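During the reporting period, we have paired protein sequences with backbone structure tokens. One record among many follows, to show the layout:
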Amino acid sequence: RNMKRNGSRNCLNRRNRFGSRERDWLREDVKRGCVYLYGADTTTATTSTTSTSSSSSSTSSDLHLVLCTVETPVSEICAGEGRESLYLQLHGDLVRRLEPTERPLQIVYDYLSRLGFEDPVRIQEEATNPDLGCMIRFYGEKPCQMDHLDRILLSGVYNVRKGKTQLHKWAERLVVLCGTCLIVSSVKDCQTGKMHILPLVGGKIEEVKRRQHSLAFSSAGAQAQTYHVSFETLAEYQRWQRQASKVVSQRISTVDLSCYSLEEVPEHLFYSQDITYLNLRHNFMQLERPGGLDTLYKFSQLKGLNLSHNKLGLFPVLLCEISTLTELNLSCNGFHDLPSQIGNLLNLQTLCLDGNFLNTLPEELGNLQQLSSLGISFNNFSYIPGVYEKLTMLDKVVMAGNYLEVLDLGVLSRMSHIKHVDLRMNHLKTLVFENLEGNKYITHMDVRDNQLTDLDLSSLCSLEQLHCERNQLRELTLSGFSLRTLYAGSNRLTAVNVYPVPHLLTSLELSRILSSLSLRKLMVGHNHVHNLPALAEHIPLEVLDLQHNVLTRLPDTLFSKALNLRYLNASANSLEFLPSACTGEESLSMLQLLYLTNNLLTDQCIPVLTGHPHLRILHLANNQLQTFPASKLNKLEQLEELNLSGNKLKTIPTTIANCKRLHTLVAHSNNISIFPEILQLPQIQFVDLSCNDLTEILIPEALPATLQDLDLTGNTNLVLEHKTLDMFSHITTLKIDQKPLPTTDSTVTSTFWSHGLAEMAGQRNKLCVSTLAMDNFAEGVGAVYGMFDGDRNEELPRLLQCTMADVLLEEIQQSTNDTVFMTSTFLVSHRKLGMAGQKLGSSALLCYIRPDTADPTGSFILTVANVGTCQAVLCRGGKPVPLSKVFSLEQDPEEAQRVKDQKAIITEDNKVNGVTCCTRMLGCTYLYPWILPKPHISSTSLTIQDELLILGNKTLWEHLSYTEAVNAVRHVQDPLAAAKKLCTLAQSYGCQDNVGAMVVYLNIGEEGCTCEMNGLTLPGPVGFPSTTTIKDAPKPTTPSSSSGIASEFSSEMSTSEVSSEVGSTASDEHNAGGLESGLVPRPERRCSLHPVPTSGVFQRQPSCATFSSNQSDNGLDSDDDQPVEGVITNGSKVEVEVDIHCCRGRDLENSPILKEHSSTPCPEEHPRGLCFGIRRQNSVNSGILMPLNKDKMELQKSPSTSCLYGKKLSNGSIVPLEDSLNLIEVATEAPKRKTGYFAAPTQLEPEDQFVVPRDLEEEVKEQMKQHQESRPQPESHEEDRTEPPEEFDTAL
């Protein structure tokens, strides 16, 4: 067919393949596209995520694509396909019949645009992806799932016998099970004649033993009837038995037909005249149909009807004729007004109208004198309707999510029957009084998430509970006669006036507000309390939270007077000692949970702890403990959880074996050298001894079966035998450092960044937080770090952990705009979740570090994108810089307003439809359009002031402020210990959920450069400038100090493997002698911090050459008793590496470091030649040949060489500098042939030794000098500088 002709008249083509012609047709106009049409035989239950290509999908008989434009209506597609109508399914859920005028392709484009795609070309491309079927799908016929059909209606022709006796014969009859009744026709295959109705509610269903696959259906009552039905197959027998058993088990005639995509009520349902409750929620019910809403009045006993989420638009007036109704739910139907006939429902007791567009209520509603519950939340009301005064049976005003700006207490005073007022999430700004009379009726008031600045509720003398969180309150005035509970967190309060004293007050939540009342539960954390007043005798205090204050001491009589105290959290203060628990010999303390993390406690506080014999949880992390006396720990036999991390302990007392109930021991970041005797405890589950000085582990013959998690990372000297590892094999989670091979280059990580991460499950039995960490990303030119929090599911975080980096790698190849490729990464990852993302969701945070290509003199750009509640904070100059946005209803008013405008129901716990508090996340597609996957994106250029980056999930930032988190880890040198510390602090501050933290240490600046001519630069400790030469380089850190998880390390090729590869790629035509063939200068190696300006010349990563010699086992030459000085050995080979830089035009003679180490100055008469200075290194006992020249040559730097420690490429690898190898640094440039292949230096045979003893160094230098002088000087032409040589060999 002619594509252009079809496209011009908005016609369509049915294709079974998506070939080049179709793609060319699409490229001509972005308004063109295709719609994948599925057949009806593909049910929603068995349809998998279409992850195959279009060619493989087209082979399926139930799927084909239809080429069309955005103007093509459904009627035209149906005409071309020979179908009556098309159906739309979103997120594998409900299926809606499309109207003839609707345009399918425009629906897809609008859907993608709402998700976050902006580029029309990209929208067109995404619309052609078959994977989109898991989110939006079109059917030629209405699909039906078998189990859905069974729950709606079961029918068939079977042998039926009436009665319990065998007087009646078996006869074939039509049998239908629908609603609450069994329907049997009087004539075979007759559906219009007389039908026998058997009510099943309260009846019974039994198996007929004398006849195979037969059931006996009996009704309830004294005159019960029985029908025997014989089925042909076991499958049919089980289907009928399963569905009928649900009906007979009911005590009230209830029919649930929710979420079945129904447009009308099944015809046979009207035979069930005993139905009292009918649930039609989440359907597409129509008005004027044979079984539409206008026919529901036929149910004469109907009392409850649920029609929420049907998108009716207009109120079904005929519903007002069902006078028996007592409960009616019409939420989320798009009503703008109510008819006056609603006043006819005189028996109505519950009316739910939430999530509509109502702004007034008819006066006739006042006739419903039995109405006891009226819900009008999330509508468009700007005042409290006056009809409330007539509805005297109501005791609640539920108007959350409307548009009230003024709270008129006078209106509420006239409603003496109202006791509860819910005005959450309105626009309240002011309070209005009509008179000074008090309101003696209102007991509960909820004004959360408004804009109130002052709140005076002193006239509500019967007020018992007040919620006023997340306003802008400066002053709060209340009556204390009946006050029991007050929640006023997240405000700006400077004064709280309560008069008289609230003697009934049992709970007070004033987070971040100064208050020190004596209650049964006192929460005064996050204030500036300096001291607590003296306590009264026998105060009934049970819970006391004092964290994040400036307390230096606790009251001396705290434990002796507060005898009921069970919970005390005094973390993040400045406590130096603790009060005594008892005054006499016997302690009466009932304290069970004690949190004292992040104080100044010393060993002197330990004896006081023995006065609390009932302690179950004890946190003493991040104090100044040096010892824990064994005799004291022996008395804490009830301990279940002990946290001693971040101290200076050298041992854990052996008496810990007496704590038989201990299940958790956290003692990371200490100086422990001896493994504690905890593997004999019968209930031990979690042990964290990371970042210590352990050397060995003495384990018993059998480990406890309860042990689930053992963390030993960060113990650099720990050596585990194979026997020990075998015994640890049954542990669910074992974290140890993977010791890299001494010949691999994986021990040298990125110069500019290193990371550590920690994840703790808390009191939950599974970890729903996953992390992504790649220090070398995109061929080593950048890094990617991510965190994914699934809240209650672990599937999606793991999926994102495995796929998101690959998606990002694809997107950065298509666009260089950070907003574009980050947005596309999130949206494509959202699509790739497939069916798993339909019902499950996850917060996601992704941080991408890359070189600044726009500014060659710049360093790196950090791009952060996130959805949900995971956050990233950058430490710049010691100050926190938030880089992400929290997408939650509580912290983002704009997002909350967007969700409100789209008429989502926000429950009292601030969750969208009671599911999640997030407004943007990956997955949860069934909550579209309330929940979107479009991320917040921010980019910043990294500078020398940027010290570290912290990634954390929701629970971490709920318990730690940005400033506290940054200050806690700034001076911790190990990133793993830093991440552990953050998680420990969060748990000590009250976190009981999953918590995850990742700390990325940044070393951005000139000291991190790896392209210096005076030697390589290796990363130094955090907080100290990195060294500039190998001589001063620190010992390479172990992998545990950078990551903490063994699975994150990538093994690179060893030196011998590199040598083998280099030799195999060498060509025989390049075997000329190194010194005789001439030294050809090569471009200098640059790091990502100093990229070479682009000149169009390709440069590869330097190669290394390894020369072997015959050595004895001890590393000595076979002819010598002592090792040859100046020869580098590793036991079996002599490895020589030469780094030959092309340094034209670079003035290095003025470099002070170079002058210090140079022994042979470069002759001035040869400015273009190369000179080598041999620099001695005491640390590695080696010599390094350093090139010296003056002219500068600017060549383009390949992305593969932007990082010194990048991944090995096909033309060679950079071998890491390690003490165990004692390598001389080399990097020779392999030439590029005209054919496109690399020519690497040839590998010499073992007998061709290249030994440079110390006494021959001068001779070698002289020969090299002579070689340089004998070289003919080429003419200095401009083209010589830009055109690289075609072939050249290495120098050695």
